[in-house]
């Protein structure tokens, strides 16, 4: 029986990627989600600014490209990223995506945050993502949910985010 051989001459195809991130919430830190500082009595305990949404989106794009993850590209023991604006990470993922010949097909994100409500900030957050990713607003979706008071997320001791992205090749 012959082994299946990898195809090397197939045209570029769309690629899907998933990203997940979670940060502990502690007193005395800002809560930043999607580039927006949200008023709260606690924020993310993180090396960078702790933006779970930007981190999950970065990993989703890197995952779709089959590249190293955010922790490998931006190690949390590197002082260069101490308190860093996480938009830097999304921009790096965008540049790698463009270099590989892809653009955003669509992006769907779910932030899990017990409180406060993310609803009032959704419009600005989606606009931030669309701008960073060089795509139309209609290609970016953001959902928010609580964790039903269950576990660390439900007790507002952590915030998490899932992101799924579909990348489309420039040319087929
Ligand atoms: Mg993170």
């Amino acid at each position: 029986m012959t082994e299946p051989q990898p195809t090397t001459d197939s045209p570029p195809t769309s690629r899907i990627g998933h990203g997940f991130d979670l940060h502990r919430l502690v007193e005395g830190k800002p809560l930043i989600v999607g580039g927006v500082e949200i008023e709260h009595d606690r924020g993310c305990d993180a090396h960078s600014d702790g933006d779970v949404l930007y981190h999950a989106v970065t990993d989703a794009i890197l995952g779709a490209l089959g590249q190293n993850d955010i922790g490998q590209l931006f190690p949390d023991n590197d002082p260069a990223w101490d308190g860093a604006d996480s938009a830097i990470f999304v921009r790096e993922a965008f540049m790698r995506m463009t270099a590989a010949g892809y653009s955003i097909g669509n992006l769907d994100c779910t932030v899990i945050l017990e409180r406060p409500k993310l609803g009032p900030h959704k419009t600005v957050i989606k606009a931030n993502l669309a701008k960073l990713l060089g795509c139309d607003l209609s290609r970016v979706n953001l959902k928010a949910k609580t964790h039903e008071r269950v576990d660390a997320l439900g007790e507002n001791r952590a915030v998490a985010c899932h992101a799924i992205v579909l990348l489309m090749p420039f040319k087929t």
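Strands lie at 15-26, 31-33, 36-38, 43-45, 102-112, 140-145, 158-169. The mean pLDDT is 94.
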